[in-house]
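Blackboard transcription, Thursday session:
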Amino acid sequence: MDSALTGMVVVGEARRVSTAAPDGLVAIVKRDCPTCVLVAPVLHQLAEAGRLAAVFSQDDPEFPPDLPVVDDRTLAMSFALDIDTVPTLLRLEAGREVARTIGWSRDRWEALTGVEGLGPDLPELRPGCGSRTTEPEIAEAHAIAATVAALRSRRVELGAAEDDIEAMYARGWSDGLPLVPPTPERVGRMLLGTTRAADEIVAVVPPDLVECSVEKVAVNAVLAGCEPQYLPVVLAAVEAACTDEFNAHGLLATTWFSGPLIVVNGPITRAIGMNSGVNALGQGNRANATIGRALQLVIRNVGGGRPGEVDRATLGNPGKYTFCFAERELDSPWEPLAVERGVAPGGNALTLFAGAGVQGVVDQLSRTPESLARSFAACLRSVGHTKNVIAWDAMLVVSPEHARTFRAAGWSKARLRAELGELLQIPGEELVRGAGGIAEGLPEGFRTSTMPKFRDGGLLIVHAGGDAGMFSAIIAGWASGEIGSEIVTKEIGT
Amino acid sequence: MTTRILLDPTGERTAATRPRASRPDSLKGRTVGLLDISKARGNVFLDRIEELLRADGAEVVRYRKPTFTKPAPVDLRHEIANTCDVVIEALAD
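(Written on the board underneath:)
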């Protein structure tokens, strides 16, 4: 039999409701609907004519009175028949639906039933009411139940004496902070945040090179504290991190400070309430905090990347718990980072950068772009070491009070980058070993060269932060490009 | 304390235990691969190791990863596995 018509619904793990719909005319009603009350005499007419196979009631098995009503308060049949309006009148043949009408229309009911003179005292037409299956809580619970039934992750049953939170610490799933228990229901709800199939493989996660499904990402997103609408962002972040270019394995293994930093662009940042303003790089915003954390938990739990094992960081940085923010796009003087990197304006995308931590730049006196660019350049030179060139990328996060100086002077982002590039051409005599009384530096052969601080494409510029404060931020990167990590931009799906 | 079933967030790789490859009694006449991971001065260390191994009668083949930040390419790993009886990987710093 067509499974769509068997009324088979899986609720939770074990409870199965199976109700077969009979062939012939079938009506679905609820007492709470005035149109259903209105058509009750018509259902009697059909029953007396021997034409009515069944009536399913969504809210009261005694309604309509004096008819053989089938109790559908579980809504199993209503979901199986995909009912969105009551009353719905259907004709089924050999287990298949061949005709359907909703609400009350004498013409349509007569055409569908082949019975003349239905409801002579009724008006010609009366719209129906919403089916109980469309009530938001019920529709969501049904969708979650269907998703839960298909979950494949190993089930971990906790002992009666175990505390949920402690049990997750004991199993090594935590980054050090408490986790949200990934119950089947929470993971099922999380998966409603994406249109992608739960068993689709998203990426192969280093260092263990484990295939990671949408479901596994969802489990870790629950652990991290994400809301379902964040899941598409987390999925894109996992995909971007697991590319060969981004090199999450090397980034994890390095003794250097860096971890994955996520910059999110596009309308989704507003839709899910990400922070691009006051304290954008700091704590307090759920989306920022949990999206970055979810990516790190995927690498930890699915990929097997743990500090002290493959993660060999000498010091690390607090951004390795989570490092994710949105660009302040709406009043930025410049095109968004993702657009600059090839994404269509208005598109949702994220950029992954091997971020090492935040260093502040203070300049409260510059009122010209030339002066402010010199401040930026002077501070950018210290990325890694003032005598270090090309090896490290960097991200410059320009605050609104600094950005306005460039806006007022009409400096594009490309202009600022070009000016910084000029200012950061460094004479080799300042870079070689021993220069400045510092042993660190380039080999003596570079003494007569002039070297750029950053490789082409190695300096990212974004706009973020609160309205007040003439402070911008430098986020140092890691070994740049082919030998380390390439900056990766990825569009966010649904 | 009401949660009783959790979904495993890990890659679900059960710990595979494998016996170690048997250790040779002697390196004499055996092929030893020396893998330089491309970190500074790793070659200096390996040059000295090569001298000592050759003095002990071992054959030595030198290899080099393109960059220390990434795992060795699959082809390189296959070549080492097919050519060598023993491999020594040099770290640095």
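Lecturer's comment: Chain A touches chain B at residues 151, 153-158, 163-164, 167-168, 173, 181-184, 187, 205, 208, 210, 212, 216, 219-220, 223, 247, 249-250, 253-255, 297, 301-304, 479, 482-485 (CB under 8 Å).
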